[in-house]
Specification:
This protein is mostly beta strands. 5% of the residues lie in helices and 65% in strands. The protein is built from two helices and 42 strands.
Length: 688
């Protein structure tokens, strides 16, 4: 009996030790597999990580490998992201990321390049965020509220919003609602120096707006596996921007009232095809953006004119995708899509002075973009690959209704995409990747018309009816070491019909300047980047990154020949801190030295931002304070003939923001299916 007991206890101990070892091995495996590389990029699991606590999703993304946020634009390996999805919903407005708590993120999939079925311009690909499901919950979501204080304009930016996911039997309901008010005040200085022109002026820009945004999605799932869903998105605001300029003893101003309304309706049908996982998805989408704008023009304290403009944009898109998993190591995807564009501009003008050049004739722009694509993914030994090809046509027409003049052009291209990734090392904790992609961008419909848009009383931009869409050949190589702790990338891009905003001097008013988009070809760009992601202490994790772009010039713009090689550099230092009792924060520094491109010089900028947060009630309540104590605003120089135009932002950068987020869940655990729109408002405009 004693011997049996000893044997039994020995067996129990061995099983216990074995279980502990197995548990430890499983834990090591989970930690080591938090970030998994594939042919198109990587997928990282963020559930339970410190970088998600107390932050909105927008701040969390900046801590991920190869992702940066520059001037409000997310980039992957230095290339602008084309699309961001949250639980399958494509974000129409990227500010929605500020309404999503980082704590709700389960995993993020990053694709370095858009797939063959995407018709996006040269880009950093796609970010797909999956929110975590609560352990028990038939419904879940969050409610947030925020308020901001800026040194330049005080309080005035407030908002409240919420996201809810709910399921009743086989019906899924998703709703994302936001209500807010925004306030802006910017002070700038402009210097004009030349052989026959010396001007100094100051400008004050103000804007107040009330904002509303909501997306409602309903999806019905049938017992056969078929899903039928629809969604409706609406966003509206009523901004009232004003621009007042002072030059010596003269005053000029533009006061505007705008009423943009964006709506999108989507129908989606999902059909499973057979038992091997084949499936078909058909989507029909309608997108409308309507804007009525009233502007009043002031010169020397006298009203000299008014305009009433009506802009209406309609986009229709049909898309069919088919997925066929050939085996566990090989799958095929193919499909077709077609998009129709119709844009109209109808002005009503009463201007008694030639001080302000305005659009006076109605225009219409039409476009048609069909795409056919096929792609495949698979594994050959250690190499993971993704390859695809698409055929895309851009048909553009522009009409001046008064003169009955029509311009049109056709562009088409065959665009291949090839992506390879191979892990290596004794435990496969390193990876090397190589990618090639050719793109033909969307029709630049917002920049084709001759509509005049005044930025302030001394600067405006005008479209170009002869503009063509940009195409690009791009080659990307990357090296990931120690499971994405060290990342090195290199990019080469050669663009055709690149869109560049050339600066001109107004013929009637020599101290007024305007920009117009033109196509330039044969531009090359080399880019090199490196980053280190490390956690030197249990409470401190940082990401240190830098990138340099080389652009050799060999082109004539107007009558000026440019032959210099220019460097553009970026440096970022992001820090995340986690302290006991739910406290935490972050401190980020970014620096961009002075760089030049053709006739423009962008002077160096830097910024220091921080955040302190407190988690309460089992991390369901997040209280956060964001701030920016120091920074240097942008200054831009433009060379126009013999004149140099300098534009400098002088408003202080200091601000503080308070946000409150409550996460909730309850009921029975279910999965919620969501339908989203498939179109965007792509505005091609000059940024200064």
């Amino acid at each position: 009996m004693k011997k049996s007991f000893i044997v039994l206890m020995t067996a129990v101990c061995m099983l216990s030790v074995h279980a502990q070892k197995e548990s430890q091995l499983q834990e090591v495996k989970i930690v080591a597999s938090r970030t998994l590389n594939d042919a198109e990029g990587y997928t990282t699991t963020l559930r339970g990580t410190d970088i998600t606590k107390g932050k909105p999703a927008a701040d969390v993304l900046s801590f991920l490998p190869n992702i940066s946020c520059e001037n409000g634009i997310f980039k992957i390996n230095g290339l602008a992201v084309s699309e961001i999805y949250v639980d399958g919903v494509k974000l129409t407005d990227l500010s929605e990321l500020n309404n999503i708590p980082g704590e709700m993120i389960d995993k993020v999939q990053v694709k370095y390049l858009a797939s063959a079925n995407q018709n996006s311009v040269i880009s950093g690909g796609i970010i797909m965020i999956t929110l975590r499901r609560p352990p028990e919950g038939g419904y879940y979501g969050s409610i947030m509220a925020n308020t901001d204080w800026y040194r330049s304009c005080g309080f005035g930016n407030e908002g409240i919003g919420g996201i809810i996911n709910y399921r009743y039997k086989n019906l899924s309901v998703y709703d994302n609602l936001y209500l807010g008010k925004s306030k802006l005040k910017e002070n700038t200085e402009q210097y004009i120096t030349g052989s026959d022109l010396q001007t100094f002026l100051t400008e004050t820009t103000k804007s107040n707006s009330s904002d509303f945004r909501n997306r409602l999605s309903l999806t019905q799932q049938f017992n056969s596996g078929i899903q039928l869903g629809c969604s409706y998105f609406i966003a509206t605001s009523r901004p009232k921007p004003s621009s007042v300029s002072m030059a010596e003893n003269s005053m000029s101003a533009i006061y505007k009232r705008m009423n943009p309304i964006t709506q999108e309706g989507t129908l989606k049908l999902y059909l499973p095809l057979g038992r091997k996982g084949a499936e078909m998805e058909v989507t029909a989408d309608y997108f409308n953006r309507n804007n009525n704008e009233h502007a009043t023009y002031i010169s020397d304290s006298d009203m000299v004119g008014t305009t009433y403009d009506k802009n209406n944009l309609n986009l229709w898109k049909f898309k069919a995708d088919f997925l066929y998993p050939r085996s566990r190591r090989l799958s095929w995807k193919f499909g077709v899509s077609a998009q129709w564009i119709s844009s109209t501009f109808n002005p009503s003008v009463t201007v008694e002075s030639d001080r302000f050049n305005v659009s006076s004739f109605p225009t219409k722009t039409n476009g048609f973009t069909p795409i056919i694509y096929a792609s495949t993914q698979g594994i050959v030994r250690r190499i993971r690959y993704s390859a695809g090809i698409n055929w895309q046509l851009n048909r553009i027409s522009y009409e001046n209704k008064n003169a009955e003049v029509t311009n049109s052009n056709n562009q088409w291209a065959i665009n291949p995409t090839v992506q390879l990734m191979m892990p290596f090392g004794s435990i496969m904790n390193h990876a090397v990747m190589l990618s090639y992609k050719r793109t033909l961008s969307n029709i630049p419909y917002t920049a084709i018309s001759s509509v005049i848009d005044w930025k302030d009383t001394y600067n405006y931009s005008v479209g170009n009816p002869e503009l063509k869409a940009q195409s690009t050949d791009m080659l990307m190589a990357g090296l990931s070491l120690f499971r994405n702790k060290v990342n090195i990338t290199a990019i080469y891009a050669h663009s055709y019909n690149q869109i560049y905003w050339q600066t001109f001097q107004d013929t009637e008013n020599p101290d007024v300047f305007y920009t117009k988009p033109i196509n330039i070809s044969g531009q090359n760009m080399w880019g090199f980047g490196a980053e280190l992601i490390e956690a030197p202490l249990s409470w401190w994790k940082f990401k240190l990154s830098g990138r340099v772009e080389l652009t050799p010039e060999n082109i004539t713009v107007g009558t000026v020949y440019y032959d210099k090689t220019h460097f553009r550099e970026y440096f970022y230092f992001n820090n995340n801190f986690t302290f006991p009792n739910g406290w935490g924060g972050m401190l980020n520094i970014d620096f961009e030295p002075t760089y030049r491109t053709l006739d423009r010089t962008y002077h160096g900028v830097y910024n220091l931002t921080g955040q302190i947060h407190k988690m309460l009630f089992n991390d369901n309540l997040q209280l956060a304070v964001e701030f920016s104590p120091i920074g240097n605003r942008r200054k831009l120089d433009r060379q126009v003939g013999m004149n140099k135009v300098s534009y400098k932002y002088t408003s202080p950068v200091q601000y503080a923001a308070l946000s409150l987020i409550w996460n909730f869940s309850g009921g029975k655990q279910v999965n919620v299916n969501v339908v989203d729109g498939i179109q965007d408002y792509h505005e091609t405009k000059d940024n200064r």
